[in-house]
Amino acid sequence: xxxxxxxxxxxxxxxxxSSARMEASGGRVMLNANESAWAPPGDHDLxxxxxxxxxxxxxxxxxxxxxxxxxxxxxxGRGSDEAIDLLVRAFCRAGQDAIAIQPPTFGMYAVSARxxxxxxxxxxxxxxxxxxxxxxxxxxxxxxKLVFVCTPNNPTGQLVPLADVERLAQAxxxxxxxxxxxxxxxxxxxxxxAPLIDRFDNLAVLxxxxxxxxLAGVRIGTLLANDEVIAxxxxxxxxxxxxxxxxxxxxxxxxxAGQVAARAHIATVRDERERMALALAxxxxxxxxxxxxxxxxxxxxxxxxxxxxxxxxxxxxxRDVRRYxxxxxxxxxxxxxxxxxxRVLEVLNNLVADGRKRxxxxxxxxxx
Length: 368
Fold this sequence. Notes:
GO terms for molecular function: histidinol-phosphate transaminase activity; pyridoxal phosphate binding. The chain is α/β, with parallel strands linked by helices. The protein folds into 2 domains: about 5-20 and about 55-255, 3-Layer(aba) Sandwich (Aspartate Aminotransferase, domain 2), CATH 3.40.640; about 265-365, Aspartate Aminotransferase, domain 1 (Alpha-Beta Complex). About 40% of the residues lie in helices and about 15% in strands. It contains 12 helices and 11 strands. A 7-stranded mixed β-sheet has the order 1-7-6-5-4-2-3, with helices on both faces. It is globular and about 70 Å long.
């Protein structure tokens, strides 16, 4: 059985749009795409008057080298969100098929499914936020075409062991595509799942330049998968997804100098993660700091709402994750610069000190 047998038959049969840039390359006088013949002001030799290549070879090759796969196993898009949306549209028939997720986890899996009118099968993480492989496999019905696994998980930070990923890929073969979201894997001690792609044609891996590579505003995400899956998704992808300035910035970040800078920032984040986890655990009112292999910490508070507001009043914005299952008392705090992290600790400790002062004042007034 081919992994494409899991995809929608109408998508497999679809005649894709053929863009002007796809139909012609190598010419000197480009008069086939109704573009302007003049570059805009401040173009910086980017030729932004011309449509970009749908999948720029230089960027695809750089990402293939970075992730250790073949160029034919790489699809580059507008962040991981686009790849998630493409997978759902390609594999899930509206009103018939489903995806499986393990909440609490990244919300876009379910959003993309619901936009497509695909059902969402939920298999909650265990109380310690680990993945129950047996429970997940037991919940996969014939309607489930995509199983999303986030590692390190967002918003909790825990890893899914690579052995569990391999077990899932094996058990889901000919049943569903396993989509492993590794947006934060660079901050962890774990190897990625990309080397398993040649063994499992039903395995897809999401990677991004938004986090460790400091390019959130550039919106470059990558799907690594079987050649046939990549070719299928190209059929339904927007004609020109990657703006030329974004491609240029991505290539600069992936240069030798860019990789040195990224590794230095990753090392700082890992050091700060350890320091902040220890420091936050000592702050009165903190119930628990969840173990994390990502660039953030999920922290349980006695009063998460008041803590969120106090941080916001101090100009510090953290993520309120109380709406997520099992996280009704938690905030997610991204690790910033050492100075930014110190400021978080200062505000949290001042919150406790101010609370004590108010308590003492109330008590003294009652005695008087």
